[in-house]
User: Fold these one by one.
Assistant:
Number 1:
Amino acid sequence: MESLNEHVQELDAELAKIITAVASLTDRIHSELPHRRGMAGTKNVFGEDQKALDVWTNDVIVEALMKTAVVKTIISEELGQPLENPDGNGTYTVTLDPLDGSSNIESNNLFGTIVGVHKEKETLTTGKNQVCAFYNLYGPITTLVYATKKTGVNEFVKHRKGSTDYFLGRENMKLPDKGKLMGLGGAPKDWAPQYKKFVDFAMAQGLKVRYGGAFVGDFNQILYYGGIFSYPSLVGKPQGKLRLVIEANPMSYIVEKAGGACSNEKGSVLEVKPTDPNQRTPIHLGNKDLIKKLEECFR
Ligand code: AHG
Ligand code: MN
Ligand code: MN
């Protein structure tokens, strides 16, 4: 069985360093989970109370990425502003949600890490300029899913017996033709009438509602079973909740490499030029036919 370290050899060596730098932290992060379930006592730039694990995973991952000497800038949910590599070297910009789904920590539900990578001159660039996106998912087992144009979408499973490397689970993953699930973010009382119209359509199509409260987990099940994940615009919050740069762009890059589509209700999320590293966006990801129907409902 091919290991992650072997699989990334076909990538640009510097890009491979970024993926393996984060992957090599898995055991350290996994062992920390039971011991850091409280609050940090600080707030992030979104005014959200930071969990101790948010801050700790951020610091551990940022340190490892800077040590690769190939990362020029890091945009992290927990840093507020882009962080330049103090040594002034590196060519890649890395976007980071160090701990996605932090509200799931206390309840022992799924959460993970989301990473986007680009090598444009400007720090803020459209999501279509990414060269790689990947995520760790901490569930009953730990997996890492990464996508590049060349390799498509590949899932690796962290082994616990014998070698503790990541080994290839599923290669060149594609969404099933017919979607089965829909993950519906936000409170239904705040949904726009256009979104309610789409939800009625999807329910009439027989899609089942599955929502776990962590983007990584709710996206991963769409990758397996097809359907749609939404964190829509909300009445009073037209930009919804999820962040364009550190959450929506990496996952939109992956869903497109898996044959799916993304939308901010008007068009592809990957075409939006960010003006602020922390800006939010409505985000819908999944089968192309469902995304097309969603955008029709918002026309
Ligand atoms: P984060 O923990 O990085 O702030 O992300 C949480 C996000 C995302 O993972 C999930 O889809 C969404 O927040 C859940 O929001 P609700 O709690 O409003 O359902
Ligand atoms: Mn998140
Ligand atoms: Mn987070």
Number 2:
Amino acid sequence: MKTKIINSPDMIKAADRRPSTTVFSKMSEESLNELSRLIKDKKYYIRTYGCQANVRDEETMRGMLENVGYIPANEPEEAELIIINTCAVRENAEDKVYGEIGNLKYLRKKNKSMVLAICGCMVEQPEILNRLMTTFPEVNLYFGTHEIGNLYSLVYAAITSKERIVSIESKPGEVVENLPACRLNRFKAFVNIIYGCNKFCTYCIVPYTRGKERSRKFDDVMDECRSLVDAGYKEITLLGQNVNAYGKDLNESRDFADLLEEVAKLGIERLRFTTSHPWDFSSKMIDVIAKYPNIMKFIHLPVQSGSNSILRSMGRRYSREQYLNLVKEMREKIPNLSLSTDIIVGFPNETEEEFKETLTLVDEVKYEAAFTFIYSPRKGTPAAKIEDNVPYEVKSKRFLELVKHLEGPIQEKSLKMVGNTYKVLVDGVSKTDEGMLSGYTEENKLVHFKGDESLIGTIIKVKILESHTYSLIGEVVNE
Ligand code: 5AD
Ligand code: SF4
């Protein structure tokens, strides 16, 4: 199959933070009608990997596709358009994608008229794109994270062309507003406030795959949140790779703390935000969180390491002491604060002493939840160039030791909850037991309990009866 390259990825362009001029190209009314005619009664299927940014992208793609007439498929086998929305943050995320394409490629072999597309962070890296293109000739559309606004033209091109279409523009254009969204949840919504990341932590691929920081306009975020409140949503999560950088790229005097406060004032029952970089987490933000009961007292504050020398090599811009001071200020001002974190073990040349400093930090902070990772070199990032003297077995051993340290306080907190009553937003039927419902407390603890399905989407009171490390069992309290 011949390949038509509209744009190809370029890591140097992706790292450029100067203003860009790319504009969103709209499809003509006539071509849109033609696309609607072509895909009439056809189904689409999207499989998403990775973070909430990808989930939110899936919602936009669903909205766009359904707007033009595509019908959602329950299984990939029914679909004429399959999109695999990929994640590149660690190697194991990529491996899952290779496996998935391997499973799905036979569908396109059987049905040459279907479109098999790959998008998301993996295709933003030239070597990975090349490997995908060589390994999977069945895939006939590749598009990047900045190309979602062009989805109609890309799908149209893939349907009508015999060539494989590749469109990966490494420099993001303006923020595109007013794209439709088909939300995956009826009562919990993600709202993007800032795209991209300028932090360039030395291990991380995200600043290259998602581009420079671009904040949405204050009023656009407010309008979206207002319409969610009006539509009866119970929970909003403000999203960004680093929400604290909100507004810095705009000619805007209001910052993230101001935005958080204004959204809280809209009266949404639960307001969350993620992710926060400790470096620009301001005292003003802490005050806003403390002031509004509907801002959940659960903060995800990735530390990555407890060692100053490793933090320096990671380019994290804060020291262990600064991080701990921030935690102290938060705990003083926000009673009942729950903290979660991300930690990487086995960063290149991490010594036993440096690792132990992560353990002592974890013991001191007592996180309520944590995501732990073994360092995974990402080609093109500065850390990937460091020669590493730590064998993988040592990294695995450290990983298990860290998990053990984290579990103690998590179990302790869960145990303390037994006998008390908490507000739970009911998510749905429990994934582990069909006879139970499940939902999350304000501090993001997962609770399973018996109840009628009519409770789904409401906030109820649940008394905790039993605690496990990562979940709780409770009973509904009838008032
Ligand atoms: N290796 C391991 N973990 C990583 N993360 C980001 N890049 C890497 C990498 N190269 C982790 C960080 C980040 C989370 C989303 O993923 O902990 O906070
Ligand atoms: Fe990656 Fe660091 Fe940006 Fe987070 S803040 S997305 S870890 S570069």
